[in-house]
What does this fold into?
Amino acid sequence: MSIDRHETNVRIDPLSGVSTTGHEWDGVEELNTPLPRWWVWTFIATVVWGVAYCFVYPAWPTASGGSEGFFGWHSRAAVEQDVAALQETRAPILQKIKNAPIDTIEKNPELLAAARTVGKVAFLNNCAPCHGAGAQGAKGYPNLNDDDWIWGGKLADIQSTIEHGVRWDADKDSRSGAMPAFGRDGILTPQQISDVADWVRTMADVPDALAPEPAGEKVYNENCAVCHGVEGQGNKAMGAPNLFDAIWLYGSDKPTIVKRISQGGGGVMPAWKGRLDDTTIKALTVYVHSLGGGQ
It folds into this structure.
């Protein structure tokens, strides 16, 4: 007959008066203390609750999808009810936004507050992945808080950009216009591109810019001024940005500018008309315009 070695070590602890389990680790013995009754009953209650929950609510997988539960409750249906209730609550103010001319919304505190609320939600759900949650932009994605607008910062301009997008082939009214690939297409030589990059950086007062060469100004006037303007002020009708301010969409270092001149092109923004309803687009327009940079 074998003897459990732990049983031979069972003894009464002299300090607590409780027997030990016979387990010992490095001189530390485990007391054979029963669990508190409140803990045991609480544990039993949670087990009963869990089993009951599985029958009351959808829980068990079946061949056809899953159990319905005695209550017939579904999270999807609950969300749909909540959304319907929210839409019913917002319906009056949304109707006012829908009926109001867009240039009058910001003059009405009630409509402005509602439009900013609706517009912010639409922005976070649709625009923030590119422009950032705070509309601060990123490399290649414009900052919407400043007053530097590629396609115009008036309400009508912003609304048109949101509705039709930028270089979005599926929308015939999308903003169009792209910078030629001066290097890739052989329009300018590498030296000419280097010269005009230095000229642009100098005129934009970039701290580490080299002294401008007359050749760079000549290349600029013959190739760039037609879109960006003789003074580099840009052209919103063509989507040509201001080159001589301190705002850079892709970066102000020379290699980045050389790359843009060589490869040309431009960013793409989806057309949101048809994806968002007209009222939401109007609210989104007002929200973007009121961030601080709207013209």
User: Anything to note?
Assistant: The beta strands are 20-25, 28-31. The longest helix spans residues 75-99.
